[in-house]
Amino acid sequence: MPTPFAAQIDLLTGAIDSAEQRVVSRTLDDVNGIFARECHGSELVYEVFNLDVPELNSELQTCTTRLHPGRVGDEYYMTKGHFHEVRDRSEIYLTTSGVGRLLMATASGETVVQEMAPGTMNYIPGGWAHRSVNVGDEPLVFFASYIGDAGHDYATIEKRGFPVRVVEGTDGPTVVANPRYVADA
Ligand code: M6P
Ligand code: ZN
């Protein structure tokens, strides 16, 4: 069991001052396949700074994400997105910088899209896959916390996609249906 700890988080960059962190960096090569168009290269799309705790349902995992601005075709940079391996585990996000959209979808295709902006808290109930999208010109930075044994199931999203995509339209960010989405049988 962990002992009490504290950490300083830079709200603009998401950097955490703790030595005890695991950093996940994802480049265009790493996220190839999530956009309608292919993408390649070593450019960073996002980084996740994790303060890992034991993977128990009595603990809370905590992390920050810095999602860089950019687009692949007309689609904004976004995270891979995942269900929790333990499906009913919930999560909260608190945006500290930038603007984005949070896409949430159930296995049966029910979809909710919410805004992310500094001070916005988004609650992701168990059973809802989640993906964040940076629709602004600056990094989208948010803090996340979720039940310790949740785990990440990426395979389902890789296979089925999300029901919607967020693209740059003439009036700004626009949510459109994803024709490649494969509904649960
Ligand atoms: C949030 C949390 C993390 C997640 C990260 C990036 O910070 O939900 O658990 O890892 O976003 O999203 P993904 O894992 O889908 O790439
Ligand atoms: Zn999650």
Notes on the protein architecture:
- With 185 residues, the chain is mainly β.
- The protein has a single domain (8-177), classed as Jelly Rolls (Sandwich), CATH 2.60.120.
- The chain has two helices and 13 strands.
- The chain has helices at residues 28-31, 155-160; strands at 22-27, 44-51, 60-67, 71-72, 75-76, 91-97, 100-105, 111-116, 121-124, 129-134, 140-147, 164-169, 172-177.
- The strands form four sheets. The chain has a six-stranded antiparallel β-sheet with strand order 1-2-3-11-6-9. The chain has a three-stranded antiparallel β-sheet with strand order 8-7-10, with no helix packed on it. The chain has a two-stranded antiparallel sheet with strand order 4-5.
- The chain is globular and about 50 Å long.
- Bound molecules: 6-O-phosphono-alpha-D-mannopyranose and zinc ion (ZN).
- 6-O-phosphono-alpha-D-mannopyranose binds next to strand 3.
- 6-O-phosphono-alpha-D-mannopyranose is lined by residues 48, 63, 65, 79-82, 91, 144, 152.
